[in-house]
Design a protein that fits this description.
Number of domains: 3
CATH topology of the largest domain: Beta-Lactamase
Number of strands: 6
Number of helices: 18
Largest sheet: 6 strands, mixed
Amino acid sequence: MRDYLIKYINHLANLFNVKCGLFDVASKEFVYNIGDHCEDCPVKCDYLNTHLYGCYEAERWGGKYIYYCQRGFVYIAIAIAGNLNTVEFGVIAGPITMGEYEDSGWDAGGAHFETAKVNDLAEVLCAVFQNVRDIQASREKDVFLNDVYKARENAEAPKYPINLEKQLQNAIADGNESVSRELLNLYLGQIFFSSNGDLELIKSRVLELIVVLSRSAIEGGGDVGEIFLLNESNIKEVRGFETLENLSLWLNSVIKRYISYVFDFTDVKHADIIFKVGEYVKNNYAKKITLDDISGYVYLSKSYLSKIFKEEMNLSLTAFINNIRIEKSKSMLTDNSLPLVEVASLAGFEDQSYFNKVFKKTVGISPGKYRELRGRLQ
């Protein structure tokens, strides 16, 4: 399958004049790359975690995901499913610049597209690799299920495995993935044995297990808001399973997901969110912008978005929006044909008096004085 992916990666890179690579999720590395642009980036960030995050989000959002690196470049990740119906590879396209982020101060040799065309490219890439994501192997799947069945056969009594649960909690809190997977297999074997194959009862136990995973992640220092978001998604998935086999395979993948999202992706996710908020505001500053609009755009709750934005930027979302609007208004003020009331409206301020107040607080002088000086502050 890898050779097949690489073949089409080259075709698409040539067709769209954009760099592409193949990212191995298990080893967290590029196994094929057209250009080592990330290694040359002056921002020495953990770019491998950035792209791992993109792969996981692509799986979460229907196979494709558009995200930002910490430098502000855009990437597209396409999730390629593997043996356990979870993401095994990611086709990564980028770096791409769009909008005002193209003036980054570093020539990454990437492509530049309008926002709509980036979305078009993501759709095309997703469609091309749709059949690849449907290819499923059975070897790893059989190995995993065999471990679970062995644990079931060796289970001593049909009782709730409280000791295994505590050990699993500790392994998750420590971020120990290999031990967590081993304990999970034993845990599931006990659960299956004690539930006599009753799927609905097993699903209830799995929902309880998700709560256990959450608590252990929080104890390990994970972000409470992020964990709750993961829980909401996971609980919905558990309820939708119709076979014990698929439920088992999915749960096996959740272990790594909890560890990675909670402990590896905090900085990556926050950087991606901040850039997306900036993109939304710069594209919509002239219109009324609400917290509901922005939180919906980045798929976060309003309270969680406000919290991380304040922590990362050291200012509120309202102040950030006003700063963008003030910067836009400065160029308008150099055009003497535009009345101040129209400048205020075009910059997104519904009230001129409020515009005057914010402008003076931000710039230090009134809009009228700024126009008189033609932007040349003393």
